[in-house]
Amino acid sequence: MEQSVSSNRTAPTGFAPARAGMRPGDVLELLKPITWFPPMWAFMCGAVSSGAGLEGRWWFVAGGVLLAGPLVCGTSQAVNDWFDRHVDAINEPDRPIPSGRIPGRWGLYIACIMTVISASVGWALGPLVFAAALVGLAFAWAYSAPPFRFKANGLVGPLVCGLTYEGLSWFTGATVLAGTAPTVENGIILFMYSLGAHGIMVLNDFKAEEGDRQAGLTSLPVTMGVTEAARFACTTMASAQIVVICLLAIWGYNASALVVTGVLAGQIAAMPKLIRDPAKYAPWYNGVGVTLYVLGMLASALGLGGYI
After folding, report:
1. How far is residue 157 from each of residues 23, 153, 234, 303, measured CA to CA in Å?
2. Where residue 11 falls among pLDDT bands split at 50, 70, 90?
3. What pLDDT is recorded for position 19?
4. pLDDT, averaged across the chain
5. Which residues, in sequence order, are bridge partners of residue 7?
6. Is the preceding peptide bond at 147 cis, omega within 30 degrees of 0?
7. Phi, psi at 251, each rounded to 5°
8. For the whole prediction, is pTM greater than 0.70?
9. If you classify domain 24-304 with CATH, what class do you get?
10. Separation CA 221–CA 211 (nearest Å)
11. Dihedral sign, CA of 241, 245, 251, 254?
């Protein structure tokens, strides 16, 4: 159970004393800009996959990128850090909340303010985007907050992240550009990449294994062990892309299928190093294997959009 915070001057038990005032840099760190890239990239892939031109829609695209990355994803990070503040006190005590740089209940207040701003921007971009934004925000809270706290389950948590970070962002990008929901083919491909992203999210759990174990979170590295969890992550990522390759080839997007085959081969070549020492090489694989994965997403989007 989360401990309560009584005032802006009192940090939770075991936390560093609150520093007077908040700096903008501390708030930005709370929102974790490094995590904004995946949904922003997926949004771009969705926009490309629609095949629609940008003429007269630059403001919609800019708003969609803002919504997918800094707003909805930033909200999810603030929510996660607030409800994980005791776990972070073990894994990452220098994070803004456990260190006291974000004092009192301000972590929660920032999450609430970001939620309202995100919903407002989604509303301005149209009803379909507004609905997608509300779904994303609902999952952002349900992932970390009781009573759902999806992240407590090593299978459900990464699935929710994959579906929202990749699938929902892709859907939003395609919708913003085309003005309608994506085609069936487009929807299937975005869904497969969302499933594959489950493996990417598991890679992020290795750094938090000790804190998750002490907090009773059943992440896959905790329940399966790091080696088996790494194998599971690799298998999940590769299997989804194999399905994507087959579908692209069946639908006649041969150039895209060939590119995705190439980037998958590169990922498979890098996987043995990850499996040898997952805790050590997960950050390395995030830089190598995940980069190839998202390049395959773009190649698929280019094919669906009629560009290759």
Report:
1. 31, 6, 17, 30
2. very low
3. 55
4. 90
5. 10
6. yes
7. -85, 0
8. yes
9. mainly alpha
10. 11
11. positive
Number of residues that make up the chain: 308
CA 298/CA 266 separation, integer angstroms? 16
What is the arithmetic mean of pLDDT over 163-169?
Answer: 94
pLDDT digits (tens, 9 = 90+) for 101-145: 999 999 999 999 999 999 999 999 989 899 999 999 999 999 999
Q: Where are the domains of the chain?
A: 24-304
CB 223 within 8 A of CB 263: no
Q: Which of 102, 120, 107, 201 is nearest to 159 (CA)?
A: 201
Q: In angstroms, what CA-CA distances link 10 with 20, 26, 45, 224, 238?
A: 11, 18, 44, 38, 47
pLDDT score recorded for residue 90:
85
Q: Which long-range contacts (CB under 8 A, 24 or more apart) does 188-193 make?
A: 188/247, 189/49, 189/244, 189/247, 189/248, 189/300, 189/304, 190/42, 190/46, 190/49, 190/166, 191/167, 192/240, 192/241, 192/243, 192/244, 192/247, 193/42, 193/166, 193/167, 193/240, 193/244, 193/297, 193/300
Amino acid at 281: Y
Tokens of 154: 């090593």
